[in-house]
Specification:
Length: 178
């Protein structure tokens, strides 16, 4: 029920309100206190960050500083085959025939939240709400920023940083609580 409500905001190009998003996330985090975990895109507001801090101890916050236009280009280049959920990206993994699913030959569609006008609205709202969150975590000494436009250039730096923060799990059974 909460997920359907959240989707209605996304489809309109709006961010999910704090109370709904916080309820979704904190419910998912219950019982994970014995594990290392990584959140992507949450918290997006100071109110969400404060609610998260009341429930969990945050060790590190990573900011991926990617230009607005890079993000917009990537998102608006995404097309899907609705029946199967196959995702194509016109820049990175295009279909063999533009606008057509490789397997079925059926038309591809662009999700409402990937349309240029929706992406622009979402990114503007995200930027306005997220700057205070970055400052919140910067003041706590938890923020580390990485800038760039290409995953393969940013990721090695993030990975090296995370290796200083997390125990080496590459040689351990990852299903065992830590």
């Amino acid at each position: 029920e909460v997920g359907i409500l959240a989707k209605s905001y996304i489809d309109q190009g709006r961010l999910i309100p704090d109370d709904i998003m916080t309820r979704l996330m904190l419910n998912e985090l219950k019982g994970l206190d014995r594990y290392n975990w990584l959140l992507d895109g949450f918290p997006r507001t100071v109110a969400q960050a404060e609610a998260l801090d009341k429930e969990c101890q945050i060790d590190t916050v990573i900011d991926l500083d990617v230009p607005f236009e890079t993000i917009k280009c990537r998102l608006t280049a995404r097309w899907i085959h609705p029946a199967s959920g196959r995702v194509y990206n016109l820049e990175f993994s295009p279909p063999k025939v533009q606008g057509i699913d490789d397997i079925t030959g059926e038309p591809l569609v662009q999700r409402d939240d990937d349309k240029p006008e929706t992406v622009t609205k979402r990114l503007q709202a995200y930027d306005a709400q997220t700057k205070p969150v970055l400052e919140y975590y910067r003041e706590k000494g938890l923020l580390k920023s990485f800038s760039g436009t290409e995953t393969n250039k940013i990721w090695p730096h993030i990975y090296a940083f995370l290796q200083t923060k997390l125990p080496d799990v590459s040689q351990k059974d990852t299903t065992t609580p830590r």
